[in-house]
Amino acid sequence: MDYPISTCLEESPIYQAVIKGKIDDVRSSLAHKVFSWDWADDDEDDYIFRNSLNKAVEIDRSDIVAILLQAHFGDNGYDKRNWKPWYVTEALETAARLGRQEIVRQVLETEQDNIRNISNALDSGVWSRNITILQMLMDAGASPNAITDWGTPLIAATSAGDLNVVKFLIEAGADPNKGVDMKGYCSPLLSAAFEGHQDIFDYLLPFVTDEEEIEVAQEYVSIKNTDNC
């Protein structure tokens, strides 16, 4: 009988070792194992490893994260490439999003060469509202003006809704006039307006130079204010 992959996760030794904090068992589970990245999650070992790694980040166990990232990646019979960068990058983005400052620092210090598109981690980091993490990421090369999964880090920040984070990015050089096409045009001001973040909208408005964008954004704000009445 085939069990759902989620069931396999809960019953896997490595996942159980992670959630119980048993470092020796984590090491034992990694022995002679090879992992290769699969976004579709149709490979059981990969699914279990990724979720174990993310769980270690979630429970803030930097020691276990370090051990997991020493696993054997790639060089197997199916793929000769080294897939470690994808695991490292996901761990960094998860740590940044959850505000796991020590894990962010650790990954930046020990796995710099394996990080792919570090600016996506800056995207993730705005949701933690942790300015120290954002500064660490920019010191390591993340750009507040990079094109990222959320458009730009500033667009992500306006969506997240923390004015202090928005101010930090602006002061760090983020361009408030930089928009992107994401199945329709999006900019920091439009994002703030659409999400109903009036304080961020008011802060960004003096920086924006596109009159048409301002007009559209003000219409969004008007609709939001009407809906909230």
Automatic annotation (TrEMBL):
InterPro entries: Ankyrin_rpt, Ankyrin_rpt-contain_sf. It holds the Pfam family Ank_2. ANK repeats lie at residues 149-177. Keywords: ANK repeat, Repeat. SUPFAM superfamilies: Ankyrin repeat (SSF48403). PROSITE patterns: ANK_REP_REGION, ANK_REPEAT. This is Uncharacterized protein.
